[in-house]
Each structure stands twice: as structure tokens, then as C-alpha cells.
Amino acid sequence: MRHPLDQKKALRAGLRKARRAHVAALDPRVRALIFMRPPAAVAALAPDGASVGLYHALPDEAPTRGYAKFFAEQGRPIALPWFADKDAPMQFRLWLDPYDDEGLEVGPHGALQPAADAPEAEPDLVFVPLVGFSADGARLGQGGGHYDRWLAANPDATALGLGWDCQLVEDLPLEAHDQPLSAIITPTRLYEAS
């Protein structure tokens, strides 16, 4: 039997290819309308006083800008991951204007992140990117373990995944450090972990 790391590596390659093809096939007008606002059950997970952590999506990832605008309009502080360097632990810092990328800079992993002087944040509700997922809340990430470590250190935060339907797999190889998600949202469905 193959080691989970080898299984994950092979799965990532296939799922990234499928995700790229899926996004490339989307009509840009349709893509602009996807993930504009969270389902009501998801929005309810960020009550008054809660802060929301999102990621600044890379080209093939499920977009987060619509969610950022929605939660900001509801008065929820928005935060993005922030890294001092490639080996530094992931933190969150406030994204003061989700309508604009002003004040953001390219981080060490290639994604936009707040500037180093942005206030630190500890989100209550965190939306995480994924390469693959299973219906029971398992997540296959990029492989760096940043979100798994952050979620392990912040067990009171509710973690939700955003992804495309093509990223669903029946089963994922799991390791002890892998953190489950409470739910995964796709353009067609909400998968709630049991």
C-alpha cells in the first residue's frame, strides 16, 4: 500500500489538472456570478461580532471576493492569511477594503496578502482553499500544512472549504495532522460534515 504522502501527491496532480480544465471551460460571465454570496446557513455562522477569514484566490481556486464583500457589508471584519516568509507560520491580518487590492502585496507563496503593518486578526469563521475534498469534510490542500497547523492552534474557529464540484473525491488519504472542515461549499451544493 502506498504511503499517504505519495497518494496525496498523485491526487493533487490529477485534481489540479481537473480544476484548471473546469475553470478554463467556464464562461467568464458565469464565473463572475459564482460564489457571490454565501448560502444563508453559512452566513449565519458569522453572527454579530464575528470576524471572517478568507483567502485571496489564485486563478483556478474558488473565488472569495464576493464573500468578502458580503461579510464586509454585514459589518464583519475580513482577514486574509499573512506570511512573514515561506517558512513562517500562517497568521491572519485585516483586509480593510475587500472592494480593492490596495494595501495588499504579493506574499511569499504568490497570493496577495495584507501589508506587514495591517492589524493582526483571529477569525472566528475561516474559509479555506482546497485542491480536493470528500463529502465528509476531509480536505486535500496544497501540501504545506499551513491551514492544518493554524486550525489545530485555533480549535474554536469554524473551518469551511470553498471549491468546485470537480474537486470532490470519494475518499482522501488522511494523516494525523489533517484538520477536518465543518462544511464545503461548491457552486451547486453545501456538503455538511457529520
Q: How many separate domains make up the residues?
A: 1
**Class by SSE composition:** alpha/beta
- List unreliable stretches of 5+ residues: none
The description of the largest β-sheet is: 8 strands, mixed
How helix-rich are the residues, as a percent range?
Answer: 10-25%
> Which class in CATH terms?
Alpha Beta
CATH level 3 topology: Rossmann fold
Helices and strands, in N-to-C order? HHHEHEEEEEEEEHEEE
Q: What fraction strand?
A: 15-25%
User: What is the straight-line distance between the termini?
Assistant: 28 Å
Q: Write out the strand line-up for the largest beta sheet, numbering strands in chain order.
A: 6-3-2-1-7-10-11-12
Globally, the shape reads: globular
CATH homologous superfamily title = NagB/RpiA/CoA transferase-like
C-alpha-based Rg, rounded: 16 Å
The number of strands is: 12
Global mean pLDDT: 90
CATH architecture: 3-Layer(aba) Sandwich
Question: How many DSSP H or I helices?
Answer: 5
Brief summary of the model shown:
By secondary structure, the chain is of the alpha/beta class. The chain is 24% helix and 20% strand.
Describe what this molecule looks like in 3D.
With 194 residues, this protein is an alpha/beta fold. It has one domain: Rossmann fold, CATH 3.40.50.10420. It is built from five helices and twelve strands. The strands form three sheets. Strands 6-3-2-1-7-10-11-12 form an eight-stranded mixed β-sheet. A two-stranded antiparallel ribbon has the order 4-5. It has a two-stranded antiparallel ribbon with strand order 8-9. The two termini are 28 Å apart. The relative contact order is 0.18.
